[in-house]
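Anyone able to model this chain together with 4'-deoxy-4'-aminopyridoxal-5'-phosphate?
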Amino acid sequence: MKKIHLMSPGPTELPPEVLAVGSQQIPHHRTPVFRSIFNEVCQQLKIVFQTESPVLVLSVGGTGGMEACITNLSKVGDKIIVITGGVFGERWAKIGEAFGRNVIRVIVPWGEAVDLRELYKAIKLNPDAIMVCGTLVETSTGVEHPIKEIARLVAQTPACFVLDAISGIAASELKTDEWKVDVVVAGTQKGLMIPPGLSLISLSEKAQRRLSETESDVFYLSFKKALHSLLHDKNPDTPWTPNISLILQLDASLKLIIEEGMEKVWERHQLLAEAVRAGVVAMGLQLFAPDNPSPSVTAVCCPVEINGELLVKIIRDDWGISIVGGQGDLNKKVFRIGHLGYCDRSDVLMTLSVLEIVLYQLGFPVHLGEGVAAAQQLFLKEVPALVDKQISLGV
Ligand code: PMP
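re: yes, here you go
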């Protein structure tokens, strides 16, 4: 028998409440029952996105949502500024180029956050840019970008700030309206704790104006159609048959997130990330992005004497814990531990403990227990001493 644990930066584990909904019969989507659930999902999404703007629900994965932002909000030849710095920043550029947009890259070295002076320069040199695309958490490097500051720069221009928050939503602090982020794209298989398959996209008034001015040739992923169904039908609706099961599961997961509270959700992720970092550093490993680490995922440099692919494989196959290797240029150079969504302190302690054993088995000079102890010390600061409670129980 082996238990499976997903400590990857997505897909992440599903809470029992979400699993239970997945086993139920689905309602037809053009019924009052489903429409009422969909209405509630749309309202709850606003809380999680921290916005008063509409949030579209598209039945397509994260990359599909990113593509839909490019195709709905810009035309062939339009200039778009892209903040790179990893596989997913680069993905914005690749999508833009695939659709004939004029992509201006703000090059960010992998493992670093964007230099705001470089972004400022790009914005000044390209006043005709209609969009700035960025990433909240660059999943390939584990970096969190300074979204509030980026948004402040873009808000002073006619461009829309379009943010990939696929691995950041419900993990990293994100205040869409307060910070003036025009478009936020989220996926569902990470902080939102349901399987992959939906894209959730908020559109500010500035983005809605851009949408109405843009003649695009999208059909299935049309924002105009999705917005029309959401806002102008009697009840919020979708233009096509949506992924009903995922929407029902999303309803369950959003309830859990809102019950915990956004501030608490962000704090929990910060704590887990800090504990993972403390643990791996205490094992003698190096962080790939020590200066701007994200609360969702930690990229750890693979020591030269260790075969990173083998490390990840043993942890997964022998111990049932899915962590992941490096992507793109970081293949074999880093391994990544996800700590988002349905993830708690005990998951972190378990993962660090297994990492220590496997590093030890592979010959890395790790002292068993030191990494776990570093995380335990951190968690101890967060919990009240239980001695008094014990005494009050008469033990
Ligand atoms: N952006 C980021 C930051 C991601 O982490 C991912 C998924 N790893 C994507 C985009 C792509 O999402 P999907 O795999 O659902 O297409």
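The radius of gyration is 22 Å.
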